[in-house]
Each structure stands twice: as structure tokens, then as C-alpha cells.
Amino acid sequence: MQPRRRLGPAGRGVAVSAAACVLLAACSGGTPEIEERDLDDADRAACEALVADLPDTLAGQERRDVEPDGALGAAWGDPAYVLSCGVPEPEDYEPTATCSVIEGVGWYVTDDQLSDLQEDATPIALTRTPYVELRVPTDYRTEGIDRALADLAPALEEHLREGLPCL
């Protein structure tokens, strides 16, 4: 078993896959945009229930509007944490991938994001499906990321099915 990887120096680790800034607006302080996903009815219903039940604050940041209205995601703060539900499995995922489990949810992040704290991180909750990613701006990489992922865990566990295994 490999050791857990950590995203921040305060690190209680996080694991997730790569996903760049959803759109420039999400990075620049404009209204964050959530990419539309082609999901089957069951996954769409799970994502809708999840989004409706997400917290009003995430790691101390207030929830804010996203575009389009009714998107399968949410945002908090400025710069914004941006959650997207129904994202694809990471291309570089392998069954031996190392994840960090925070409050019962296994998060995966790419090696390049783990090593560069000056880059946004995009943890993906691989142990729940449909998959959810959280874009974490650089501003929150050293403080806030573990709290944000912990804040999301209850809703993810309630509304999403078991996903891929993580070590």
C-alpha cells in the first residue's frame, strides 16, 4: 500500500484527478460556469439531488450563483470553489491509484497537481458515483481544501452510489 498523498502542507491529504478551470469566468471572479454533461436519467437525478442538498457555506465561503441556472454543480467564495457533478472518470486513473479518504470519501488528484501548490487543484471523488470534482483555487491550496472536502462528504455519501476503489 502506498502512503497517502497530501495536497497542502497542513495536509490531511486529498485525492483527485486533473481538470482545469471549468471556464475563465470561474477563475477570474465572474460567475462560475458549469459544463453541461450528458448523463443517464439515474445519474442526472443523483446529481440534481446532490446539488439541491449542498451546504450554503464551504470551508467558510458563501455559496454563489453559477451559470447556467440549474447546472449540475455549485460554487462558493471568490475565487470560487467550483463543484461539478457527473464528470468522467479521470483518464489517468488506474485501480492502484492512491487516494486520500476524508470523512469517508476517497479523493484522487493527479501527481502534477499534488506537487505544484501554485496550480489550482481538481480533486475527484472517485469512491462515489456519478463522479464529482471540486476545482480548488490556488488561494485555498494550503488552507481550506481539507475542510471543503470534509464539508462535502455528508451530501456525497447520502446522494451518490459507491464508485471506484482507492488505496
Provide a descriptive summary of the structure in words:
By secondary structure, the protein is of the alpha+beta class. Helices cover 23% and strands 21% of the residues. Strands 1-2-3-4-9-7-6-5 form an 8-stranded antiparallel sheet. Strand 5 (100-102) and strand 6 form a beta hairpin. Helix 2 (41-53) crosses helix 4.
Q: Quick gist of this model?
A:
With 167 residues, this protein is an alpha+beta fold.
What are its keywords?
167 residues; alpha+beta; 4 helices; 8-stranded antiparallel beta sheet
Record the SSE blueprint.
Layout: H1 24-28, H2 41-53, E1 57-58, E2 61-64, E3 73-76, E4 81-87, E5 100-102, E6 105-108, H3 111-115, E7 124-125, E8 128-129, E9 131-135, H4 145-159, E10 161-162
Antiparallel strand pairs: 1-2, 2-3, 3-4, 4-9, 5-6, 6-7, 7-9, 8-10
Helix pairs in contact: 2-4
Overall 3D shape: globular
- Note the main sheet: 8 strands, antiparallel
Low-confidence stretches: 1-27
| Strand residues, percent | 15-25%
Q: What string gives the helices and strands in order?
A: HHEEEEEEHEEEHE
How many H/I helical runs? 4
Question: Strand tally, please?
Answer: 10
Helix content range:
10-25%
Mean pLDDT across every amino acid position: 84
* Order of the strands making up the biggest sheet: 1-2-3-4-9-7-6-5
Structural class per helix/strand content?
A: alpha+beta
